[in-house]
User: Fold this.
Amino acid sequence: MSKRTVFTTVTALPAGITRETVIEALHDHLEMIDPLVIERNPVKAPRKASLEEIHYTWYHVVEKITYFPGYHGRIGSDVSFHNLKDGLQTHIYAPLGLDIRDKWTLGGTLPHEPKDPKEPTEIGLEVPRDGLWLREDVDMKCNLIATSFVKKTLKKAHETLVERLVEKAHIRERETHKSRLEENNSTLS
Assistant:
């Protein structure tokens, strides 16, 4: 028996990260693939993909999972990626009828950006009032017995991906700053 589960995770991003850097990282599909993945190969869309998904970017991924302490396995899935102006959509077809639709959205405002006072805040999401934030909306269909395991795994992957995203964003920001300094120094010389 299959169960549908929908949940949202919102994570505040640290100050100093630009909108462009976050979107660039979200659009880096290989970076966005789950950190537990041990293999990834580009593939054509699977037969079960919808007509609009056929032209998305697809990968077959294999990840190592722990079913129970001491019992590990490998599981393969087909994953699609579709870049959006403010984020990324993914769709995962995994064994046993697991179907996950995921949408990552960058929101919020930076200090120099104007705020729209009329823009309503969703109730219950604890969206930060200041700064940038990353929202992940998950809609999954899963075997009733595996639902809590899959949800826990997705939330852990979200935390890890956000940590990596922030780390990469900081690296990109430092590189950009360093390159500007070098340009200024060469102009002054």
Summary: The mean pLDDT is 86. The beta strands are 2-12, 37-43, 57-68, 71-84, 87-93, 99-109, 131-143. Helices lie at 19-26, 29-32, 147-188. The first strand starts at residue 2 and ends at 12.
